[in-house]
Design a protein that fits this description.
With about 450 residues, this protein is α/β, with parallel strands linked by helices. About 25% of the residues lie in helices and about 30% in strands. It has helices spanning about 45-55, 105-120, 135-145, 170-185, 205-210, 235-240, 245-260, 285-300, 330-340; strands at about 5-20, 25-30, 60-65, 70-75, 100-105, 120-125, 150-155, 195-200, 220-225, 265-270, 305-310, 320, 325-330, 345-350, 360-365, 370-380, 385-390, 395-405, 415, 430-435, 435, 440-445, 450-455.
Amino acid sequence: MMAESAVHVDLAIDTSALGNTIEPSFTGLSYEQAQMQNPAFFAGTNKQLVGFFKTLGSQGVLRIGGNTSAMTFWSPNAKPSKADMHLTSGPNRGRHRLRPMMITPDSVRRLADFLDSTGWTLIYGLNLRHGKPENVADEAAFVMETIGDRVVAFQLGNEPDLFARGVYTVDDYMRQWAQFYKAIRARVPNAPFAGPDTAGIVSWLMPFAQRFKQEVKFISSHYYAEGPPTNPAMTIARLLEPNPRLEKEIAAAKQVREATGLKFRLTETNSCYQGGKRGVSNAFASALWAGDLMFQEAATGSIGINFHGGGYGWYAPIVGTNEAGFLARPEYYGMLLFTQAGPGRLVGAKLSNAEQAPLLTAYAVRGENGRVHVALFNKNLDKDVVVSISGSGGASATALRLEAPRASDANDVTFGGSPVGIDGRWFPQVEEHVPGRNGLYTLPMRKATGALVKFA
């Protein structure tokens, strides 16, 4: 039910105001390197997980790295144990000392099959912190030999700006990076690279980009909206508000792009660091946050985004195990809305009269067929909104709604009236007609909901 006090907002689409292009490879997921201990996880035979990936697009990017990449080592002669064959690695919270973990040839071979089955490509982390250049070069050589052109980039080290804050500097990292780079390139002359994969200290981006602009394909960093989860101030309301830290990182990436020509990818992100916060990261509100973040990054020139997850982490978009099966958490639905909106070219989408609903956001994408899709996120927790859309050039419009009973709900999430199935497949059941007259279309939106409007 819409409240009688709903705010009326105008949205003007301008298809002549061309923005950035959203490539099919924009969407991505990120997992801990420790997951590579289990060769049955990222495998073509893991049909359920393959299904969840494919529903998010046929050309996404899987990033493997995280905290555990500092304790994973290449072992060409090792074989997985029985325990490894059942391992599901969730997000590492960085609280406990890690034991050494082995990556075997079988895991890499099965990963290649998984990528072939999904159509996705790979960003692969290598152990710079505790690894040896020669061993890391051996691993990179086998990965390239086995996976080939599906390797988008190797990344050396995970969040090096946190290795030893105040002691280990960006200059220390660049010296070490160059040493590992030289060893890998000696073995694999065509190996692609990205970096520095920092935790968010933006002052590291420019010096790294300037020194290695000829050696890397793009610049990468991480972003978490909240944390730590023990802080009671980390709430749904705070998650949905604009974040100054994100704005700072976006500005730094723009400066790098203008100075060096290098593009930027957000290779690890999520709602709350240290594995997420129960009641926030696994709530429906995270779907609105995730979908909106993807469009924010696309609008500011990022080439992609990778949401971190795995296991049963509170913020993981996909949770589960090989034995128990997999499920989509709310965040997955926000990613799905983004996938259904693009790829394509962003065009002008200007909101007016939105002062009383300040957390309403809107984005317009024109596909290759020339049709316009509009993504709307009403992140206001206390405001119903009626949106009047003009300038789409469409003769008719339909809408798929992103909804749950409440922003705090962890279950009962639907997109287009339908949940994502246990096999990862999704089929919209409700694609409602959006009434329009003389090119003006009106869509009512309840508080804390999203929608994708398709014009034809």
